[in-house]
Task: inverse folding
């Protein structure tokens, strides 16, 4: 890895951590809060691509695993990987990889729409699918019920996907990040 790439990964880890400072919003029907850190996951795939974006997210999760309280709500440690959010957390590297792959495939003049679609597929559909599976494994509710309850995240995820797509599109348009 080049020094520039290491710096980009470090900045993305910091961005994801800073997004965790925004207090999570409790959801009444499931024990998983709404977090703004998912925007960081989408942003890492959009800006850094599948390789560097995924490396950034894996580093972030390793920092969480060793106890750094950088998840929303100042959570950290191995216990978060045994709780109801495990499916969402485990999905993050896969989501980033998928978003990065979809963005890298889309090199047309309609990049903004490509970013939105990539974020909706990777940052909403895949994340909530894996999150629902994790919720089923931890809480022992049926998969159908878990997936159904994850639908509560869709309106906010759509807004997050669009905001991240606009930010990523503008950053790329002005060549702030050169990979």
Result:
């Amino acid at each position: 890895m080049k020094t520039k790439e290491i710096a980009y990964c470090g900045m993305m880890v910091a961005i994801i951590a800073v997004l965790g400072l925004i207090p999570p919003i409790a959801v009444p029907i499931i024990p998983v809060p709404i977090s703004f850190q998912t925007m960081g996951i989408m942003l890492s795939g959009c800006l850094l691509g599948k390789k560097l974006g995924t490396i950034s997210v894996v580093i972030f999760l390793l920092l969480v695993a060793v106890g750094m309280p950088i998840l929303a709500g100042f959570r950290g440690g191995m216990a978060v990987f045994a709780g109801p959010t495990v499916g969402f957390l485990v999905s993050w590297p896969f989501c980033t990889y998928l978003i990065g792959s979809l963005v890298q495939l889309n090199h047309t003049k309609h990049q903004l729409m490509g970013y939105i679609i990539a974020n909706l597929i990777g940052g909403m559909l895949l994340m909530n699918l894996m999150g629902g599976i994790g919720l089923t494994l931890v809480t022992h509710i049926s998969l159908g019920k878990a997936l159904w309850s994850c639908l509560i995240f869709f309106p906010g995820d759509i807004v997050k996907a669009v905001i991240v797509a606009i930010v990523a599109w503008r950053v790329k348009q002005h060549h702030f990040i050169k990979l």
Residues 114 and 178 are 19 Å apart (CA to CA). DSSP finds six helices and no strands in the chain. The chain has one domain: 3-173. Residues 3-173 form a domain with the Arp2/3 complex 21 kDa subunit ARPC3 fold (CATH 1.10.1760.20).
